[in-house]
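Hello,

I think I submitted the magnesium ion job twice by accident. Can you confirm which output corresponds to this input? Input:
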Amino acid sequence: MAEAPGRAEIEIKGIGVSPGVVTGPALLVTTEEERLVEREIAEDEIPREIARFEEALIATRQQIHEIQQRVSEAMGQESASIFDAHLLVVDDRSFVEEVIRGLGAQRRNVESVLSVVADRYAQALARLEDDYLRERAADVRDVTRRILRNLAGRSASLLSRLDRPYIVIANDLAPSDTATLNRDKVLGFATDLGSPTSHTAIMARALSLPAIVGLHDVSVRISTGDQVLIDGHKGLLYIRPTRERLEAYGKIAEARQTIQSRLAGLRAQRPVTRDGYEVVLSANIEMPGDVDAVLADGAEGVGLFRTEYLYLSMQHLPTEDEQAAAYEEVARRVAPAPCIIRTLDLGGDKFLSHLKTPSELNPFMGWRAIRFCLAQPDIFKTQLRAILRASVHENVKIMYPMVSNVGEVMRANAFLQEAKNELRLRDVPFNDAVEVGVMIEVPSAAITAHLIAPHVAFFSLGTNDLVQYTLAVDRVNERVAYLYEPTHPAIIELIRNTINVAHQHGIWVGICGEMAGNPVMTPLLLGLGVDELSMSPSAIPLVKEVIRSLRFAEAEGLARKVLPSVLATEVLEACRDLTRRVAPDVLELVG
Ligand code: PEP
Ligand code: MG
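Support: Only one job matched these inputs. Its output is below.
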């Protein structure tokens, strides 16, 4: 096609993580540093720049005091003292004066001068022998970021203030960005980084928004306002799609819509195979508002409430009352179906900017989830009391994430006991018999499931993390995404073992990782004997269609057939063959 350079259609291939096709204007979302506006200034602008700098310093000082206060209440004085070092930076006269002098000398705006001065300070500190002083380099960088944010007047994320619908393009999106986005104004996502189980992907599926990740450099090839088409099904993104392209996609969208309308009719049908085997299909949610979709798509309750998004959506740690109200609302709306509330799973790729946790080299293997909660009894017990308060609706169940040994379950249960006693002292009602389960998402837990089973009422396999930890493949790194294979024989073996052990101990076992919502996997998971599948609500009709088209005997046959397989691709092909045979329309939709 001979078109003017820069105006021609461009196709970029990534990883399709949430199906559907959408077209619209792009909105490029960049990090604070990238948004930094640097410019030259005239002499008469200097006083105004000094005033802006001083106002930003005042705002920054006040924010640090507020954070310090909250951290002190939640985590004690010692944790809060980390912020003293931040205050020292804001109050360092030589630092502040060097910036002010630079304004006159360099005739550049305060953002430019501050960045250069702060960088010099941080580099000088980083070169020092003394460990304590070296660590102050991070404080200088942190405080500088905060001052720059205040200079830009951007306290809320850009995504929470969209004025019209956009396709969001970014290098990466943090869970704290997606947790606060204005859902009505986002048409889809496309990011340079990420993989099918990164949180941007999970959020996109929860919102039924087409999304592509792992596009490498899409954020430098697109500008805000460019017309974009994304095919979340095939992982294809088009910049400035041609008329022919739009027409072809229009026809595909019509055909897909016909299938989807038929599947929507399954809402009230039971997820039962043709020979009478039934499983529970429940939903994964991130926020209380997601319950609308849970009810609309016909899920039987909530199999995973990722409570950390509640924390990510607020500028402070949610109080016991705030949490109890959120949990109570979800439990009430899905009752009598189960509502499984997972305790806080912070860390990994989910951080609270207002909670100063040390940065780590390997966050997914670090101070995450139950490890963080066991070390922060006040935060943990506040949440447990809130969940217990909601447990007056007897469908509430508690689930601990990232358990790697049975000792953690025992310690968490001891905190639960304390939380119950605290409520008793306050005469607050709760269900003393509330069921407790654990996520099986660390290989050691899957291998020692027999040691954990006696302490819990259920297991839920978190295959997103189980695959990451078993295969040593970072779940958010698009470079190694090709190795992220849920059908790897090691994964099938861990799932099989966990299900068998659970049943030997008389407890039920579900799957709440993304594998559970992939209809291609449904026959195999059924054949392995799983009792519950929990997924993003939009996947429920597809999975239900496969179940209702299948015989349990065929599913068992598939499980028997693939167990001796050597290659993940062999297992995947066998799964696709059976799904294609029983539910070709579904395969058409998911590709
Ligand atoms: C999982 O790891 O499979 C899971 C469901 O938890 P998350 O994706 O929130 O880590
Ligand atoms: Mg997990």
